[in-house]
Amino acid sequence: MNLFREIQGYKPVNEQERCDRELMLCFMAQNSDYLNRENRIAHFSTSLWTVNRECTKTLMVYHNIYDSWSWIGGHADGIEDLCSVAMRELEEETGVTSGVLMSRDIFSLEILTVDGHVKRGHYVPSHLHMNVTYLAQADETEALTVNREENQAVKWWTLQEALQVPGEPWMVERIYKKLVEKCRNFF
After folding, report:
1. Buried/exposed 57-95: b ≥16 CB within 10 Å, e otherwise
2. 10-residue stretch averages of pLDDT, the chain, 187 residues long
3. Could you give the dihedral angle defined by the CA atoms of residues 121, 90, 147 and 155, in that order, rounded to the nearest 10 degrees?
4. What is the reported pLDDT for 185?
5. Which of 14, 96, 101, 123 has CA 20 to 30 A from 57's CA?
6. In angstroms, how far is the first alpha carbon of the chain from the final one?
7. How many CB atoms neighbour CB 8 within 10 A?
8. Which is it for the CA torsion 125, 82, 145, 136, positive or negative?
């Protein structure tokens, strides 16, 4: 697996993805520590758009730092296999063990801004997440678990509700709407 080649081979679906893909590739070429959060300007993260079997609902967490409903995800922390990181995050953040990747191919690309915040008693300055998203499917009847360190709640939302409950307008307009549309076209 080579993340640079995967991103290079990804076919953007809109201008946001084209611009972000170009910047990601440039950043990777210039920063050998792109997988580590020790790079305090930007580093890679991964997210998982998790849907039920019918693709009518998505699993979201109420994220502590963003104070909003959001998708599941986390930092690469030196691991280039972002699929495995995303699947680990699904279990850690929600307790779901039935999740299955629909494909190891990248589902979406986006560069996300992260405002400065306090985590575990230490200030984390504002920075960028070079984010790679994958698509997974899980059993919506499986018991959910809240990871209090990361989130306040875990819940399945209809795809329409998933565009209404987040408190981050930019994420809804630029990312979640795109993911809902791509999901509808995937199945």
Report:
1. bbbbbbbeebebbbbbbbbbeebeebbebbbebbeebbe
2. 94 97 98 96 98 97 93 96 97 96 97 91 94 98 94 97 96 97 87
3. 120
4. 86
5. 14
6. 26
7. 12
8. positive
